[in-house]
Amino acid sequence: MTNTKDLETKIAHLCALAREKFGVRSDKLDVVMRKLGRRVPKRIHKHAEVLLSAQASLGHPTLAMMLDEKKITQSYKAIAEHLKSIDPKLRRKNKMLDVLASMAFSILVVFALMILVLVWRGLI
């Protein structure tokens, strides 16, 4: 049988990891996962659903006895492992490089269109 305090500790740890890696400020796992959105894979959201349903079932004694501890532990480990593997500095660097690459591509397209117009008008 899963202990309520143990599950709350796991959820608090996951929320702390999300705060550290993504800057999400919440103590509730459902809010954290909603704010993370597409920044984490769908499988991580499914693991979070397992933890959230277990947390909801812990309030009822009969349902609490039917929880699968192995599945809860696997879900917790999967989420924690994924969050620990994220490097915030690398994420920021990649985001900045994406913006710069987009700007460079836009400048190249504008330059190519300008040359095309000049050729079309016969100025080159």
How would you portray this structure in words?
The chain crosses the membrane at residues 99-120. The protein has 124 residues and is an all-alpha fold. It has six helices and no strands. The protein has two domains: 1-86, no CATH class; 87-124. It has helices at residues 4-22, 29-36, 42-57, 61-65, 69-84, 88-121. It is rod-shaped, with a radius of gyration of 24 Å. The model has no long low-confidence stretch (mean pLDDT 93).
Helix-strand layout with pairing:
Layout: H1 4-22, H2 29-36, H3 42-57, H4 61-65, H5 69-84, H6 88-121
Keywords: Membrane, Transmembrane, Transmembrane helix
Transmembrane segments: 99-120
Separate helix tally = 6
- Give the end-to-end Cα distance, rounded to a whole number of Å: 80 Å
Structural class: mainly alpha
Range of helix content: over 70%
According to DSSP, the number of beta strands is: 0
Transmembrane segments: 99-120
Keywords: Membrane, Transmembrane, Transmembrane helix
Relevant terms:
mainly alpha; 124 residues; 6 helices; 0% strand; 2 domains
Task: Write a brief structural summary.
The chain has 124 residues and is mainly alpha-helical.
